[in-house]
Structures are given as C-alpha cells and as structure tokens.
Write a structure and sequence with these properties.
The chain is an alpha/beta fold. It folds into two domains: 273 residues, Aldehyde Dehydrogenase, Chain A, domain 1 (3-Layer(aba) Sandwich); 182 residues, Aldehyde Dehydrogenase, Chain A, domain 2 (3-Layer(aba) Sandwich), CATH 3.40.309.10. The strands form five sheets. It has a seven-stranded mixed β-sheet, with helices on both faces. Strands 10-9-8-11-12-20 form a six-stranded mixed β-sheet, with helices on both faces. The radius of gyration is 23 Å and the shape is globular. The chain starts with a strand and ends with a strand. Bound molecules: nicotinamide-adenine-dinucleotide. The site of nicotinamide-adenine-dinucleotide (NAD) has 30 residues, from α7 and α8.
Amino acid sequence: MTEIFKNYIAGQWVEGTSVNENVNPSDTKDIVGRYARASKAQAEEAIAAAKAAFPAWSRTTPQERYEILKKASDEILARKDELGRLLAREEGKTLAEGVGEAMRAGQVFAFFAGECLRLNGEVVNSIRPGVGIEVTREAVGVVGIITPWNFPIAIPAWKIAPALAYGNTVVFKSADLVPGCAWALVDVLVRAGLPAGVLNLVMGRGADVGQTMLEHKDISAISFTGSVPTGRKVAAACVASTPMKKVQLELGGKNPLVVLDDADLKTAVECAVNGAFFSTGQRCTASSRLIVTAGIHDAFVAAMTERLKGLTVDDALKAGTHIGPVVDQGQLDTDLKYIAIGKDEGATLAWGGELLNRETPGFYLQPALFTGVTNSMRIAREEIFGPVGTVIKVKDYDEALAVANDTDFGLSSGICTTSLKYATHFKRNSEAGMAMVNLPTAGVDYHVPFGGRKGSSYGPREQGAYAREFYTVVKTAYTFAG
Ligand code: NAD
C-alpha cells in the first residue's frame, strides 16, 4: 500500500478518517497520491492547537518570523520545477503554468518575510494637552484559511504568508481536489522551523471541516477564496458566530476585455487568448466576456479562430501542450452545460467546444468561442469557470464601457486600445478592482493589492502591504504623561 499523506495538527502528522485519492485530470488512471481527510473532531483539535500556540507566536520577534518565511521561500524557489510538476499533475495546468505558480508562491513568502520587518505604527499628537497617542497593529488571533482548487499553491501562499508574518496562527483547509500542493507547502513550512500549533493542515471537506472552522468560537478571522454561493455562507456564518469573526472573501468573476477599433489586433488576440483560455479558463480573472467594437469585430473573430486552431489541448505535463484538461468531471459537465445553454440562447459557436480524445483518459475540452452574444445571455452573466469565451459586439467605446460594467461581478477588467484617451477613461470608470490596458485580465503582480468589487470580493484586499489590513487589528493607545 502506498504512503498516505497526513494532516498536520499540533506539530504532528496525523492519520485522517478517510482517504482522498488525488486523481490526475490528464490521466484519470494516474493517482497523484493518497491524502488523509480530516474529521470535524480533528478540525477542533487543530483550532485548539492554533489557539495554544498564538500567545508565543504573536510575541516572536520580526527577525524570527522573517527567518522562517525566508527559509520557506528559498526552498519553494529551489524546488519550483518539482512543485510545478506536482501542481500540473493534480490540477491540470500546463507544466509551464504550474512552475510559474510555484515560483509565485516562493516570491510571496519572500515578500512577506520582508513585511515582518516593515510592520510599523503611528505616533499622533492628541487634541488634549499632555496626551500622546500610538496607533499600532496587532495579530488578529487564530486565522482560518479556506482555499479553492484552481491555484493550489499560490492562493494558500498568499494567505498563509501574511497570516504568519503578522503573528497569527493558522488552521488551513485545502480544497479536496488538490491536496498535493497544500501538503507540500505545509511540509516546507514545518521544516522551515514553525513551532508546533502555529500552522495546522486539515484536508477535509467543506461541509464538515470548513463548517467547523466557520462556527468555532476560537477562530478570530476567516480568509476564503471560492465561489459566490459558498462565500455567502462563509460571511453569514462568520457574522452569526459569537464572537463575530473578521472575514475576507475573494469570489468569482465575469471579467470583460474590451477591444476597440484602434487596438493592435495581435495584442488584442494575445490578451484574449491568454485571458480567456490559458489555465483552461479556470481563473477568477479569466476574460470570459470579449467586448468588441464593430469596426474590428470580424477581423478579431477571424484572428481568434485562427489562433485557437493552432493551440494544442493535451496532457498538462507534455511538452507542446498549450491548454491542459478541465479539472474534473463535475467542472467538465458544467462547461458542456453552458456550451449547450449558449447554443439554446441563440449565440453562435464560432469555434471549438468539442470533447477531445487523447492518449490517456482525461477531461479534454476544446476551447469554445461564442459570437453573436448579448450581455443578457446566461453565458455572459454567469461564471462558467472553463475554456468558454463570449464575443459581444458593440458599436463604440461608450457602449463597450457600459456593457463591461453591466455585471454582478467586478474583479478584473481590460481594454485593448492605442488611444490614451480611452485607456485613461477606462481605468477611471471601470467598476472592477483591477483594470488592465493592453494586458490580459488575468496575471497580476504579488506586491500590490489584489481584489475586486461588487460580487467578486468582500472585505479588505489581499496581497502586497495591503494584506495587513485583514491580518492585523488596529489598537489606538492614549497616554497622559502629565
Ligand atoms: P468552492 O466555493 O466550491 O470551494 C472553495 C472552498 O470552500 C473549498 O475549500 C471548499 O471545500 C470550501 N467549502 C465548501 N463548502 C464550505 C462550507 N460550507 N464551509 C466552509 N468551507 C466550505 O469554490 P471552488 O470550486 O473550489 O473554486 C472555484 C471558485 O473560486 C470560482 O468561483 C472562482 O472564481 C473562485 N476563485 C476566486 C479567486 C479570487 O481571488 N477572487 C481566485 C480563485 C478562485
């Protein structure tokens, strides 16, 4: 019997109550590994361990925390090829995308190692004579971290790194589909020298382990990334619990990429193909709505179709693969359902959308491009989370902006144009958390804020120095010195 990768609770690797077989979506005969699923009771033990570890960890010096996070960063970067391969094998991103994501996780830990040393406060003059005021930031307490499957190492990294940097202890629940990267990341951090209880891994299901975290009185804050329906439940539970928990949600998207008549066609096509279809379209920042003005529309669709014909959909680990498989049967069913809905709604399937057979059994789907889409169609309004792009034809910039903003989401947005006037106007008037000019809507830096508006995000931003807003609490101290 092969090894079972265990949960990590109170400084010990512990068995679970059932085994999760981690299936390779490029080859469903390939089991990436067997991972122990944690129980509700184990989630409670993890929370107790994190609570017990908090007083000492929150009082460690910035130098102590820096050294552990920096060591973790160094190991992740040194092992990026191996970790990237594991990621591609369990999630289905291409090897290049997997290695890039592993590298990102290493960079994030290096950034937050530095943040340990940069955390500062303010000294403010009082309005009262003889009184001094200090505004300082303190750790929040035990932070529960709940992550989705589509960025199996980067999202855990950009939540765990700031949580630890600012002195919090952590209970981390990874997504059931991708326990491999979660386990590998925790293993690196443990060996980097984290004291027992500071970081706990519970690889259970959302409905039991996740729910336990949401309801437990000893968790002070929850950072969640996932879908809107789950996010709503998370926020409601955090507010309903006593004491109330701080909560941060990063949710779905239906991100617009506007292409104007004056755009450089090649740039526009590259932005659209990358944004809509790379990582199999399974990105919260995917450009799932391509809003194209009438003058360039036909040339854009023709160039997109040509470009899509040249892309290879195959095993994520094979050299030459541009697009890996869909993550699992459930997501594939969703993608196919929406392709059928698009046809029923009267959109034209200009290219793709067919299931593909490859050497190994996997969830291979040709990227699908719909034209003749209106912004009221379900394929333009609901997050599909697969390789499905929709082209919405508009008459001019004003209509393009109105359509771009006419959505329940607001994570990322983009415009392809050579006009400074339109680029500037779009950056100022896009109702999204992130606005890109001549760049794909997906693909961000790690040292600046990440997050959205409307239904895409709730609570403070993630990443960069802005992460401190969520992972610390502010104290205002007054002293009368006579
Ligand atoms: P999901 O909502 O199904 O699950 C997310 C996590 O929540 C998983 O770990 C799951 O086990 C857990 N969960 C489920 N029910 C729970 C409950 N009752 N209590 C506590 N936890 C529970 O999302 P998913 O399918 O894993 O991920 C895809 C979604 O994530 C998409 O909507 C995508 O847009 C979004 N996403 C957003 C961002 C962002 O930063 N905005 C980034 C990546 C993915």
